[in-house]
Amino acid sequence: xxxxxxxxxxxxxxxxxxxxxxxxxxxxxxxxxxxxxxxxxxxxxxxxxxxxxxxxxxxxxxxxxxxxxxxxxxxxxxxxxxxxxxxxxxxxxxxxxxxxxxxxxxxxxxxxxxxxxxxxxxxxxxxxxxxxxxxxxxxxxxxxxxxxxxxxxxxxxxxxxxxxxxxxxxxxxxxxxxxxxxxxxxxxxxxxxxxxxxxxxxxxxxxxxxxxxxxxxxxxxxxxxxxxxxxxxxxxxxxxxxxxxxxxxxxxxxxxxxxxxxxxxxxxxxxxxxxxxxxxxxxxxxxxxxxxxxxxxxxxxxxxxxxxxxxxxxxxxxxxxx
Length: 322
Prior knowledge:
Blueprint: H1 22-46, E1 51-53, H2 60-68, E2 73-77, H3 84-91, E3 95-98, E4 112-114, H4 128-135, E5 143-147, H5 154-168, E6 172-176, H6 182-190, H7 194-197, E7 200-203, H8 209-216, E8 219-222, H9 226-234, E9 239-241, H10 251-261, E10 265-267, H11 275-286, H12 289-302, H13 307-318
Parallel strand pairs: 1-2, 2-3, 3-4, 5-6, 5-8, 6-7, 8-9, 9-10
Helix pairs in contact: 1-2, 4-8, 5-11
């Protein structure tokens, strides 16, 4: 039983950490029959109306067992380029929820719909006014939120370090560094003149305050994972995206390009990211309010703050739950 009170059962199927390793493939294949039989026994015991999965190799036994038991399957795909296992699972699913429009070119037509990426409802309670008040930021003036995700990004932090003085002359900067990078960035902050230091808000980790930061921002600089894109878009905030170069199948670049094509983001390749380029892109947008507002309008159109509800509705329909 999980701490949420939702029953939990782990099958023997591990994830595939190294898709190119023959040993990994063989070892996972050997576990598949046991994991599938285990999943089938749990389905018989639990008697679900629908099977919901985010895909990946670890979910394969559950999907196989669900299909044998004639339980309908909903698969949610978070990236513009679905992984190999998810493309296989999609063929066996009755309904596929996508996050990016680009997925529609790869996944089965007629069964794939852009439902969006679920977002914590606690984030969405923040407004521009309440967010800025929480973080001690003036109600007026531009705000740039820089984040490398929950673990932080050394590449983004390094670029900000060289750019921060120039950025702070133009905007208040909220910098979500990741806990491992906090001490280094804090030390850099202490070297700044007092007037600029006051405009530089540094956090190692943000939980509920993440909503405050997003609601406060006029522009977000960040990675291009599904959630890193979905959360700012839910607030209608334009993006400068720096896709993680080592992401499997370059899926972060595909995610970023999908949103850029919709007019809500600018993409900087990680290999091309430096302080000068970051300053040029950020100040270029802040100095062109017409373009920034056009991107904000596109972000609002692309954002899906009610994605969790949409997915829940799909599951209820698929399972015949009303």
